[in-house]
Model the fold of this input.
Amino acid sequence: MQRLDKFMEQALTAYYNSRDPLGVDGDFTTAPEISQLFGEIIGIWAVQQWIKLGSPSSINLIEIGPGRGTLMADLLRGTQHVTAFHDALSIHLIETSDTLKDKQKTTLQKKYNIQWHDHLSAIKNDKPSIIIANEFFDALPIRQFKRDNDKWLEHYIDGGQSVWQAIDTPPLKPTLPPAKNGDIFEYSTAQKDYAELISTYRGAALIIDYGYEKSAYGDSVQALYKHQSCAIADHIGDADLTSHIDFEWLASLFKNTAIKTQDDFLNENGIAIRYHQLNNPSLISGYERLVHADQMGKLFKALEIFNSKP
Ligand SMILES: C[S@@+](CC[C@H](N)C(=O)[O-])C[C@H]1O[C@@H](n2cnc3c(N)ncnc32)[C@H](O)[C@@H]1O
Done:
């Protein structure tokens, strides 16, 4: 029998290490794979953060969970004319999957000087940093707790089946109202540890993911196999497992933040101007998918983090 987060950790490690899961032949598609505009707009945001930090002559640009390296490639191409920004950059990618590391190398290594690491903690926080994580936090394991008969239960997986075991007290989530019987809530130590580590880096960070702006009860774990949803233990190591991010709780782990919907974030940073400037009709469907309220525009949120001091 395995606790849900331990089960997810093992399944996700096997999953990401054995394949490139992105795109039509994989299990899901992400914003950078949908449109070049996504990485380009994040590039504009990154340059603004660099300027706000006083245009330092040396800065880390870090992406956590970079997939195929598409976001970073679009960001760097889109900002190439800002030469002082490019001259200042030390570029770092944090990736645990060897398969995706190889893809990232194919996309980026010829043009840029990049360092790869398995964990953010490998990068010294002795200079300002701009940190980007798109659909990374949703790939981290979570625990689930249920209130039942005025007691707490925790979700375990046993022989492919869900089992709820009695426990004394779950970890504290101060952003949630008191639980009623039947309520389920999710808690991720892996997300908390990563957030707390990010908060030690002076500079700015951007976390984009699907999730909710206000902490809420509910079961959000989902498994996706070849673009179809399935039960979480149906294709262990072959299905993607994710959960929705509780942005209110995540933001509470930092000092200075702003939470926006993805459409607001992209619009504020000029996606419409960039789209019209490119004047390329083939970009319309991707552009609409990123910002339309019924597509990714409202479901995805952007958490901006401003760490002026380490
Ligand atoms: C859902 S994909 C998102 C990829 C990319 N950011 C995009 O938007 O296309 C998750 C990424 O995080 C990586 N990843 C998953 N768990 C990780 C971990 N613990 N540390 C570093 N990278 C991880 C995966 O290998 C993959 O690159």
